[in-house]
Amino acid sequence: MQSSTPSALPAACDFTVFGGTGDLALRKLLPALYLRDRDGHLPDDTRIIGVSRSELDDAEYRDDVRAALAEHVDADRLDPDVLDRLLRRVHHVRLDATAPEDWHRLHGLLKDRDAYDDAVRVFYLAVGPSLFDPICRRLEEIGVTDAGSRVVMEKPVGHDLASARSINDAVGRVFEESQIFRIDHYLGKESVQNLLVTRFANTFLEPLWNSRWVDHVQITVAESLGVGDRGGYYDQSGALRDMVQNHLLQLLCLVAMEPPTYVGRETVRDEKLKVLQALRPLTPADVERDTVRGRYGAGLVDGVPAASYADDLGHADGRAETFVALRAEVQNWRWAGVPFYLRTGKRMDRRTSEIVVVFKEPPHAMFPHSEGGTTANRLHIQVQPDEGMRLHLTAKEPGPGGIRLRPVSLDLSYATAFDQASPDAYERLLMDVIRGNPTLFMRRDEVEAAWSWVEPILTAWAASPARPKSYPAGTSGPIAAAMLLERDGRTWQEPDQ
Ligand SMILES: NC(=O)c1ccc[n+]([C@@H]2O[C@H](COP(=O)([O-])OP(=O)(O)OC[C@H]3O[C@@H](n4cnc5c(N)ncnc54)[C@H](OP(=O)(O)O)[C@@H]3O)[C@@H](O)[C@H]2O)c1
């Protein structure tokens, strides 16, 4: 899903990370920048500026970055010369985003360079969303934004439609939409981009990719971990806001979208938006029937005892759901009547992100006297881990005598098909920001359309006396999630099927 109009690498870049000492910066952003630097992809004249309230000088911050890279980059990819080069690029600015008197420090550092007018300035907001507005206002006030600047927003962009609009308005007062990069890191994954290539750079799928031949689609994003020490944050959010509103709906869009005329900056986003706008709105009765929310209890994950959500949270008054399953429909010519089943949860039996497109059974049983039966063809796209694709077919088992039918699969494993490791999604996305290519980022109208669809679910749940259904840690979720499909004569596709 590369843009057909690749953007040029700037000669100079100041990459400022607000929240430079945080988990996201140290675990994901700095390692991604290191790995791109290692391959010579960063502009030579790049500085990386971590911003936080911590009392750190450059040397102390560099020590923290060095330790983070040692922890989060594979040892065989850590080259001492590249590491030294990267660390020389790194600076720390102590600044409370809400304290106007601190901002002269960032102003001073950004201005203190030869190529100030030519440098692309990236402002990465790796802080809570309440700081997005004050940070953007101050950046404008101190005069370090220009037409070449970019701002990067992490999820969550709001906790409902109104707050998303308010954040988008605040950031939009300072930056043009073309300068705003809203990250959904799922879109940076190789397998997700390959989904579009598979659909649109080959001919065999397109005639089948519609309600005539597709029975239904399943999208699963499961984690085996619980909320850990982020329970306080998570309990304000829950699985619907944290995962469905962004990652799962983005995956659904890529499966369901029409082919754009070409893959370009806006064309893919235009098509994704149409899918979001075509999602059938859920009434309170639909929410009751077509959604399931769950919360993990104690159990065993991989044979190891795992605590309940209440225990992880430290109290029993948690509000959030840690699991969601739902049935969605895309109301357009291609997909009319085809259910899209989405599920996501924490503390499940495995960690996986996968899309399964289940095709219809053959219209006529041609092998009435055979052993074994036909099974519906399925295209299984594994987003993580072990990125790849499997096409499930029915074949004749070799041998004399009668015909015995057996399910077989054509497997494409990225690891074996391509002799190189897939880059982390952040590596691709950060380079797209530096180059100014927004194709893989969410546009404002997409984010707001996704909230518009999700919000009636939040409202109906809030009004309902029902509590999330309990499921034991280490399982595939509450029984009600299985019943959601059984009711339609279907079952969730599990890995051994
Ligand atoms: N971690 C992830 O994997 C991840 C993934 C997706 C989205 N996100 C989102 O990204 C944001 C950051 O997440 P995180 O996990 O990195 O959080 P975190 O570990 O709590 O880090 C927060 C960072 O913000 C800084 N900060 C807080 N208040 C500040 C202020 N007033 N002025 C300047 N700096 C301030 C903190 O440093 P000081 O306390 O020293 O100021 C720290 O560097 C959150 O909105 C989160 O939802 C995180």
From TrEMBL:
Protein name as catalogued: Glucose-6-phosphate 1-dehydrogenase
EC number of this enzyme: 1.1.1.49
Enzyme class of the recorded protein, top EC level: oxidoreductase
A Pfam family it matches: G6PD_N
Catalytic reactions on record: D-glucose 6-phosphate + NADP(+) = 6-phospho-D-glucono-1,5-lactone + NADPH + H(+)
Keywords associated with the record: Carbohydrate metabolism, Glucose metabolism, NADP, Oxidoreductase
Pathway, per record: Carbohydrate degradation; pentose phosphate pathway; D-ribulose 5-phosphate from D-glucose 6-phosphate (oxidative stage): step 1/3
The organism's place on the tree of life at top rank: Bacteria
Active site, per annotation: 247 (proton acceptor)
Stored InterPro entries: G6P_DH, G6P_DH_AS, G6P_DH_C, G6P_DH_NAD-bd, NAD(P)-bd_dom_sf
Chain's role: Catalyzes the oxidation of glucose 6-phosphate to 6-phosphogluconolactone.
UniProt family annotation: Belongs to the glucose-6-phosphate dehydrogenase family.
Chain ranges of the Glucose-6-phosphate dehydrogenase NAD-binding domain: 17-194
GO cellular component, one term: cytosol
GO molecular function: glucose-6-phosphate dehydrogenase activity; NADP binding
